[in-house]
Amino acid sequence: xxxxxxxxVLVAAxxxxxxxxxxxxxxxxxxxxVLTPLSPPGDAAAGQLIVHGAELGIQYINTVMGGLFGGRxxxxxxxxxxxxxxxxxxxxxxxxIAGFRRLVSEDHAVAVWGAFxxxxxxxxxxxxxxxxxxxxxxxxxxxDVTKRHxxxxxxxxxxxxxxxxxxxxxxxxxxxxxxxxxxxxTDYGIALMEATKALIAAGKLDATLxxxxxxxxxxxxxxxxxxxxxxxxxxxxxxxxxxxxxxxVKQAHDVGLFPxxxxxxxxxxxxxxxxxxxxxxxxxxxxxxxxxxxxxxxTALGKWAALEHAKRYHDVAVYANLNSFGDAVIVAQAMNQAxxxxxxxxxxxxxxxRFTNWISTEVTFPRAEGVAWHQWSPPMIIxxxxxxxxTYDTTxxxxxxxxKTGTYTAPR
Amino acid sequence: xxxxxxxxxxxxxxVIGVIYCLMAVGITFIYSVxxxxxWAMGEFYMLGGYLQYLLLSTWLGPSRWYLALPLAxxxxxxxxxxxxxxxxxxxxxxxxxxLDEYATIVTISLTVLFRNLAIVVFGPYQFSPRDYAPPVxxxxxxxxxxxxxxxxxxxxxxxxxxVVVRWSWFGRALRAAAQNRLGALSAGIDLxxxxxxxxxxxxxxxxxxxxxxxxxxxxFPESGAVSTVKGFEIIVIGGLGSIPGSIVGGLLLGLVESLxxxxxxxxxxxxxxxxxxxxxxxxxxAGLWGERAREA
Lengths: 412, 296
Prior knowledge:
The complex is a heterodimer. By secondary structure, chain A is an alpha/beta fold.
């Protein structure tokens, strides 16, 4: 009888140990999750870049940092390695929900990042709160991500109001007054359109706006672009993500709208290798918003990531790589500061700590008012492709004036 | 509003409408002969685009698009024939029950297979061959050269298809199979072979649309999804099984989408097509050119 009790206790102990989140035990590598678009209709190319950045982050944590804990930040727990778990959200809300659930319940990820599409991030954010697992936006910029004050959601990326402020400043600096906007029918596109309209209504941007919202799955935007051409705007704002962003440039070029009329893209897809392959000469003259330029000063972490990226992927690191890398190391620093792999403790550490990412040593996520809740914004710049097959480091910075290295170049 | 502008929108709609027709004619042709719906039509469109891109970027060089086009169309057609022979023919042998369900399952599975295969082989990225021709001005409409090539190519293919179906022995045999399979069999027509050829020709039309439009709409794993929906909208508007109906339906859809997205709202572009579809179904339930049928 006594022997049976001992066996039962041993079995129960083994089951209890097995059922606890494996990521929380010291010996096994702790899982960190990436939930990002890796297939259409999401911007899968962006997802690939984010995964590459996350892989670099894991490499940095395991090699340069020597794993988590192990005496860092005064944490005396034994050093522990981390591993990456990746899920594809396709940029679709329902897939994001399923992916987040899998990362937490099957892979036992203690923190998740990698969101690119705002709609997908907003769909999974309530789950992050439900599971109390920190979820960091890598490139989802809609204000609601932080404005809704989710307890477990953080963002080290620009907000759409930052983006609107950047293009508003640029428009005023250029002396443009008539603006046309072609925006996709997603949280991202609609929020940017509304924020621009609000800025004009508040008298902070002296311009008129003709905005057209299009269905993200549309492949022929010729009629809308012809309408813009007839209206003769000073600037066309391209608020498409993924394939639509390319189609707007290409079809605007086909109907003779662009580059005769300047176009500003809402994010940095022109820095990707496929940009020139897809658009060829039609891509010249496009101005675009970016959060990074290879000539910007970076932290030691950022320099390591850029060098390692070039070695590992034989390509220049772009923002998606660097910010995903940054999110990984922020999570690692928060875990060290918390001296715990318990997601609740990581959330608390993220709220009270100060972190270093690729561009700043002062990253914080305060419990602030409005959109500033759990928010840290990188610098935002406007660049321009001034010649075909242009490399990233030679694109001039047009805005802000403090970082300016060139002026807007109209086509000859 | 300026008449020139309206003419531009209408012309843009007609250009895209003709290209929609290729997809719709392919779907309706397969349905007419084999009495089955090929739900993977959009994926054959996508494969046509990839094949064209591959031929131009690896073998023929970007300027020889006119050589790549027939090869891409042929490649998709042969693939379609192979798929029909291996996966679809068995259901016609012995005239098994639930042919529709079998065809639906097989072709929907092909949709998933081809999309995922494209992601595995080519990655999730967009690709685009170089434009086939420089931009041109067609009346009031500034037109991309590739779009003009796609338009002319679609018109030529549809014309050639009509001639073959109307006047050749092969076309007569296919029409016989479409009208009465048992009768055609009694007259000595090799039905399994006709089915295989019909499937090959039908998917080749979709492949042609994909190859023609590769530089216009880019090539990516889900590029066929929208075309499939449009194709099915068109065949219901035109009447299931009617080739003239598919052509008129395609033109109407292109026109309605173009004008609706400018004069009403671009965010509901796809709704206008469905509105047209509902209107046609309310007025003519069998579609514009469809015929009423009675089943025992």
